[in-house]
## 1
Amino acid sequence: MRRTDKLKAGKFAVDADLVRRLIASQFPAFAGLEPRGIAEDGWDNWTFRLGDDLKVRLPSAEGYAGQPAKESRWLPVLAPQLPMRVPAPVALGAPQHGYPWQWTIYEWIDDEPVRRETVPDLVTFAADLAGFLKALHGLDASGGPPPGAHNFFRGGDVIEVYGEEARRSLAQVAGRIDLAGALSVLDTAEQARFSGRPCWLHGDVAVGNLLVRDGRLSSVIDFGSAAVGDPACDLVIAWLFFDGESRRTFREAMTVDEGCWARARAWALWKAALVLASGAPTHPQEFSPAEVIAAVVREHRTAGD
């Protein structure tokens, strides 16, 4: 996300000078490394390269303030059990110099961000991502954090938490979408409540959090929305980035039941409707919110035939 978009949205302003002062005060061993911003930053955090081998991530708003401690606690547990590389925390920083929250130093993963031109075989990419998610969802979830405010309830009940907001957003864009079909997506998800075993989930499987090497998925980053709950929210990328054969491959490889897929459609619909109604910025490599809604509704109608 562009820095200007984040500042317009009221994010806490962080620059390289503040990062430099935090590093010098708390981790003097790294004080000789120069922090510099990166071209493709996220929404929840400010990210800076620190030398060649490290990066610094600082929450951009209070709602993300619990992420550094959670990732520092759980990523060392999850990482050895996963088939692809994930961020390795190096140090957990404290509030200082006017910055109000904890922050983290990680190892830098020197792979490429996902773009359509960097993924020549989208079907293989879909299968690789499904393999990673199935491994994550299958890990021992004992003691892991349940969905809550720390991850915006990803892994919780999408209708209970976001159903009303989804319907309000859909009403605001009613003239631009198939409203009846969209509302039917929500109704179907409401009848398909999660009753399985809560599992580890990433919580924000999106293009900006996936890296590739030689055209293949190599790394999954940003576990700030991780929790233990319903894995349906991890499937939303099926409509954000995949289509046709790649979407079918992803669904088949995930081997989830119809109820889980119906809840995933509701997650995708909620987010797309909210973004479409608000005009919030979107990732340029993902389908537009209107396209996501159309694809979700079209698939839902086909499933009901």
## 2
Amino acid sequence: MIIVKTKEEIELMRESALVVSRTLGMLAKEVKPGVTTLQLDKLAEEYIREQGAIPGFLGLYDFPNTLCMSPNSQVVHGFPTNDPLQEGDIISIDCGAIKNEFYGDHAYTFAVGEIDPEIQKLLDVTKESLYVGIREFKLGNRVGDVGFAIQKYCEAHGYGVVRELVGHGLGRKMHEDPEMPNYGKRGRGKKFIEGMVVAIEPMINMGTHRIKQHRDGWTITTLDNKPSAHFEHNVALVDGKPELLSTFAYIYEALGIVSNEEDEFRQKALVL
């Protein structure tokens, strides 16, 4: 059952989402060759708590860390380790936080130093597909409309769209209805209704869409060991249209990137 949020609850959820957005922005300055993902995990936990929030992943389903850190061919749910990042790596950082009893949950895939142009293209297309999907999150549409749009966009570039892992509703629980696959057929699935909040998160592979789950029960890699990218936003349905609760603006500020990609999904300007 879809749990509808009031406008007041959506604003509380925006606060939760922005805790995560600021944390990813802080981490953007720290992602570089030689740093370990465990070091980044410690920084994130401290920073989330400084914002009066609680790490959303720590202890959830017995996950032992604050961040899911998934480099290169890891798709999602990777553990932070003592292995230093290397020049040319990519790293998906997925972060959650609880504030006002609501979850924020989103992700960004970072380049570590200079990366191969073909891998950069994978990152660019995956992030673009996120917004392609968000445009379909509107009153009268259905879950399949978002999945179809993401799948069509990514497969047109020759990439594999992961089937087993999906986005989800978001609220007082990390995972609520509906599931939000990144593939599907137009007009299928649950209908979108005013006040719902979802996490849309394309997980896109350079090669095959097929994946492998490791014995630790968490780590997931591409079956062909080619790179995978992951981007995620939290979005509410407000006045019939998608309203972004999260932002990559803090990341872009840290990295010196100028972008207006989020503007169409905000009814009022974001104040950093």
